[in-house]
């Protein structure tokens, strides 16, 4: 990922050295003690929702997939903009049939799917804000899920979350450094961007985190006979912008297109 990409800061610290200490530091200390969410609760989410063909966005060290109960040789696709993450997690998950893809979830995904499940676990609070901008990640993942697929995961909430004095100070510090971009992330806002792409959303807060599962992806165009492969945005009968659905939804080029999609997202209709 290029250094000038808006999403660069959120993944910059995932160096080979940091990945070696990630499990004991982040999952052993920060998650249960600072954010007050037992790591076992996140493992339960994987065990409950994992499908036969799974897409893991931001797999970290591979900790959760290793504990998800997958059979040897099970297919799993790991997607992350950081090659160190992909290399570390794929080594750990060597007993599985791993495919790695170096890509940014905020842009149309270079995968065809359909996947039975996908995880955004500990990812959304690192993506460039505000929340309506992060909706592109949800849209892009939903587009590669099967009609019965599920998107699940967890995210640290912003200033409105149930924080202790310690967690609030660490939240602010991570936002100043650029590791997080989530001060404005709320449980209601997260629910709204999920409901924009899924018909059914379950969301609960545990400590300072929101745990979610979303099913029944809304009518996102997919490849196949009769599928839409190009959309046009018109204003007063004039084509303002046109292109593939994924690109138009996540990276509109024209200001009027962006304004229109922003209003749709804020209204909870996309």
Structural class estimated from helices and strands: alpha/beta
Cα distance, first to last residue? 27 Å
Q: Which second-level CATH architecture of the largest domain applies? A: 3-Layer(aba) Sandwich
Strand order of the largest sheet: 3-2-1-4-5-7-6
Q: Report the C-alpha radius of gyration, rounded.
A: 18 Å
Number of strands: 9
Structure description:
- The chain is α/β, with parallel strands linked by helices and 270 residues long.
- The chain folds into 2 domains: 8-217, Rossmann fold; 231-266, no CATH class.
- It is 37% helix and 24% strand.
- It contains 10 helices and 9 strands.
- The chain has helices at residues 8-11, 16-34, 39-49, 63-66, 83-92, 131-142, 165-177, 187-195, 245-250, 255-266, and strands at 54-57, 75-80, 97-102, 115-121, 145-156, 198-206, 209-217, 231-235, 238-243.
- Strands 3-2-1-4-5-7-6 form a 7-stranded mixed sheet, sandwiched between helices. Strands 8-9 form a two-stranded antiparallel ribbon.
- The protein is globular, with a radius of gyration of 18 Å.
- The protein starts with 7 loop residues before the first helix and ends with a helix.
- 40% of the residues are buried.
- Residues 221-227 have low confidence and may be disordered.
